[in-house]
Amino acid sequence: MLFSELYSAYYNAVAKILACAVRGDLNESEMQKIVSENAFSESVLTVIPALKNGEWQLVTGDLRTPIEHMPTMPLTLLQKRWLKAVSLDKRIKLFDADFGFLEGVEPLFKPDDIYAFDAYSDGDDYESETYIQNFKLILDAVKNRYPIKMEVKNRHGTAVQMNVVPEYIEYSEKDDKFRLITSGCSYGGTVNIGRVVSAKRYYGSSVNIRGSEPRKPRRLVLEVYNKRNALERVMLHFAHFEKKAEKVDDGKYRVEIFYDVSDETEMVIRVLSFGPMIKALAPMGFVKLIRERLEKQKMCGLW
Amino acid sequence: MAFNELIKNFSRIRDYMREFYVYGFKSRDEYDKKSARSYDDERRRIESWLGDYMSFRTTPDGKNVFLSIDSRLTRHDPLYAAWKACSFTDGDITLHFILFDILHSSDVSLTLKEITEKIDGYLSGFNEPKTFDESTVRKKLKEYANDGLIVAAKHGKTVFYRRESDTPLPSSDVLDFFSEAAPCGVIGSFLLDKVKPHKECFAFKHHYITNALDSDILCTAFCAMQEKRTVVIKNLGKRDSEPAFFKAVPLRIFISTQNGRQYLVGYRTDQSKFSAFRLDYILDIEIGEVYKNFDALREKLERIQKHMWGVTLRRNENDTEHVEFTVTFGDNEEYIYRRLLREKRCGTVERIDKNTAKFSADVYDCAEMKPWIRTFICRITDIKFSNKDLEREFLSDIHSMYEMYGLEGGDDDAV
Lengths: 303, 415
Known about the structure:
- The complex is a heterodimer.
- Chain A has four domains: 1-73; 77-113, no CATH class; 129-201, SH3 type barrels, CATH 2.30.30; 217-299, Alpha-Beta Plaits (2-Layer Sandwich).
- Helices cover 31% and strands 23% of the residues of chain A.
- Chain A is built from eight helices and ten strands.
- Chain B has four domains: 11-82; 90-163, Orthogonal Bundle (Arc Repressor Mutant, subunit A); 218-305, SH3 type barrels, CATH 2.30.30; 321-404, ACT-like. Chain A, domain 2 (Alpha-Beta Plaits, 2-Layer Sandwich), CATH 3.30.70.1150.
- In chain B, α1 (11-23) packs across α2, α3 packs across α4 and α6 (172-181) packs antiparallel against α7 (186-192).
- The longest helix of chain B has 17 residues, at 388-404.
- Chain B is elongated, with a radius of gyration of 27 Å.
- Chain B starts with 10 loop residues before the first helix and ends in an 11-residue tail after the last helix.
């Protein structure tokens, strides 16, 4: 069963409190710190009194415990079955992971049980030895924050060299692609890992460690006309953005979405996909892009 | 009753979290399904779990509460917090930590009587010590054995209990990635709670996090699929006032990477047809008996999938509709052709000439394709649907868009 106290934030917090008590260095402020870091914002009001009042008989009034060993719990069968399912995922080859300990465990699901019906078909090649090797090096560089020298094919197929500091790796399930977000590169901060020809650690000094460029959020204002279930479709479709919505009047809603400027073209076609169910109101530059596309469409002679 | 952060039942909070996160424009009075007290408690709980993401706005209709999360910026789905708020009794938590301390290693193997006596020893130092009788301890051990935490082995007539062997965890990178990218990722989040703080290397774009709220339904569906069993689905569609029950053989989970919806596609044994059930509409799912023709149904679904653009199915698998459209692109717009190729799903793309390509498909429901076709607006030179009503609607929609943006003259506010 997935919804179980075994996985609860309270059990996790209490395990850490008991570990501290077993070591003999538990005090009131440590208890508060553990609870606020491992549970929820009001949990201190429940967890600490329950332990101190003896409702949960695990810590005595003088903050000692009858527990003798560091609290641990084996993995549940559900956790093992999920890990087994992960071990069958095509992307697991990108990680040095040994799942030998799961022999005999039935997976919770198999790759064939899932079908991402609208994912793009030109995703990264997780079978390619070069890709796997590059990915592993990049991941290591992100983790240990060292610069790398890469040869990357640009969109015209020309190989370019770059020295970058990897910041983090971004994955898109829709594109089924990994992208490396970098700093210190004059060609731009994002590199499709699938375009990397080779990558190696860079020991030189011609790289600028300055952190990734901050995102430039832009506010898109949409009016949504709730016909053909458009409101639900719009809200779900744009659910992954920071956004605000309000009802303007019956059947009309105003939605504000904060998107990254670099994704503007993608946003334009996403808005177009809703047809006359939504209208872009701002920014004016965005509205202009929609109008231009419609003007061009008019010239195609469909209507 | 005093406010409690924890909950016994997930279903009610599931509705509220979805409302706050996906919609977020309802005022307190509009949550008509439940009492005002219930609304206040659920809102306070969610605020307690996800305070950083909770926002408020005052409107003429009252105060609106909403969750605003840019899933590209968060490294982990904040909604997983709800799955870590299961309530328990004072006895549950006390017994849990004492039991695993007594059975601290898989080498320690004890009888029920021995364990019960040791528990008394642990509690003797407290004022008014709790007592756990053998039947309570046996019940808990059985529960843990079912969860795979405890092994019960019979030697002669006596049952000995020991903890399951400890197993290593994969690296935090594996857990960080798959807890977001794999189905039922919340289980990965449970595992992450066991590892030390570390550098998180992954972010996620186009990441629909609401699926977290359907994890239990999905998990049960997967369990049924692995054992090739039927399920009974308790479903409440958007327009339904009462839930309906369907018996089905769950065959595959269809996931949309472009709107986050998840569907259980199965074979309805009562109606002898394939159907798709939206997971967020499923209130409950129960596993039934083994279905002997599971593999044959899967094969049939494989065949049917070749005509599914989305999740619409037909009773007659040959009942398809045809659509074709032509797009034009400039000499330096080869990416449009590549877009067609990578996004065509079950359709086919034909290169007409250097600057023109034609897409065609035979699918069960061409209406599902309209949003995608509209993404090519500005270059569609021809379009034909075998369903003429749909064709008229598509063209009329484009005309409405011209009007909406003032390209037809007249009222640029018209829909």
